[in-house]
Amino acid sequence: MRNFQPVLNEIYSNIKKTKDKGIVASYIPELASIDKNNFGIHLRTIEGHEYAVGNYNKLFSIQSISKVLTLTKATSIIGSDIFKRVGVEPSGHPFNQLSLLEIENGIPRNPFINAGAIVIADILVSRLENPKEDFLDFIRNVTSDNTIHYNESVALSEKKTGYKNFAAANLLKSFGNLKNDIDVVLDFYFHQCSIEMTCNQLSKAFYLFANKGKCLRNIVHLTESQVKRINALMLTCGFYDEAGDFAFEVGLPGKSGVGGGIVAFLPNNFIITTWSPGLNKKGNSKLGMQALEQFTTKTQMSIF
Ligand code: GLN
Fold it and tell me: What predicted TM-score, i.e. pTM, was given to this entire model?
């Protein structure tokens, strides 16, 4: 069994010395006050060993990391029919970019840009009996943790200022790619983004992607082929217009959120979650990316 603690300690002390910590997302007012000195890493191996440093047990807004979990839930309900309404190509553009959506007739490039995630939210609103409750139950289920909650103030803060998301939803609606009422779909979307989790909880939730579709309790949520596809999407689209850079520097599939979290994993091996709220220009955690680059360089563990 490999002991990852020394390497995490080493990365922690390197990162703590770094002066440029990036900029906290302020376009969601409720996130603007988060202290950017927070920093945590949690690693869970496929056998269940855990290693951690820093603020790995502190709750933060998972934001776009939730998009992987909504895609998982939608895949388990309607399978590959999803891809009649959303593409599987990297967009090469920021997560909230709109012009491509108009040029491409309301079919978002992939499920991880905001427009794509809004279509997935629409699918869940159509298919789940009590969408917000059922989705939260699903997250609690895959994480084996009933304490996970939505943060209503963050959801409200985004509802009040989410002009681009309203624009995306309106464009989708105009192309017939949104079946439900715009306000209902966006209410679901803002809530999924507002979920708060710790690094520790995210490493548990993402266990199923490293474990061929089976969660910690050995329940099958996705087939092996579905997992392979979602993992491929994380590698190619999980970091928006920085997906190439993340693959180049880190070499793991994963997903980021503007709350400063990143979850990455090596299939059949480990899941690693970092949290540092300061973002780079592409909206990904600046120090989280640096920490993961150091991790895969020092351990020589990446998919390549
Ligand atoms: N809730 C954020 C938004 O819609 C999610 C963006 C992100 O985490 N990249 O803008």
Answer: 0.98
